[in-house]
Amino acid sequence: MTDCIFCKIINKEIPSYVIYEDEVVVAFLDISQVTPGHTLVLPKKHVPNIMEYDEELASDVFKRIPKIANAIKNSNPDIKGINILNNNGEVAFQSVFHSHIHIIPRYSEQDSFGLKWQTHEHTNDELLAITNSIAKQMEA
């Protein structure tokens, strides 16, 4: 895709700080480091989001995540944990519409990244209805 910034990075038209690359993925430092080592992993094939992956692409991309995450974690003894995130769609905070996975090293509970969400109580009937609706789609 000619106007995709990530495709331009893949094609070496825009410089980046690549930490890993092979025939399937490229992993590079996010230009906006949430914490030091914040890395994006993306398939070289242009797909807008995770819903566009086929089984082969999903397998090929996700089997590389542990290796990359371990390299990041082992690169700095101060890293205590790692968040792995994938945003899909504008409402989910996806800002570049070439699928990518964030690997965010965590140094402490006070570092510059946090996830906090509000939970909602549901009745058993509501949970069963949600379950059935999703399960029905799994059959499609």
Automatic annotation (TrEMBL):
Question: What InterPro entries does the record point to?
Answer: HINT, Histidine_triad_CS, Histidine_triad_HIT, HIT-like, HIT-like_sf
> Pfam families this protein is in?
HIT
Annotated HIT domain ranges read 5-113
Q: Which SUPFAM superfamilies match?
A: HIT-like
Indicate the residues that form the catalytic site. H100 (tele-amp-histidine intermediate)
Enumerate the Gene Ontology biological process terms.
nucleotide metabolic process
Q: Which GO terms describe its molecular function?
A: catalytic activity
Q: Which Gene3D superfamilies match?
A: HIT-like
What domain of life is recorded for the organism?
A: Bacteria
Find motif (Histidine triad motif) and give its ranges: 98-102
Its recorded name reads Histidine triad (HIT) family protein
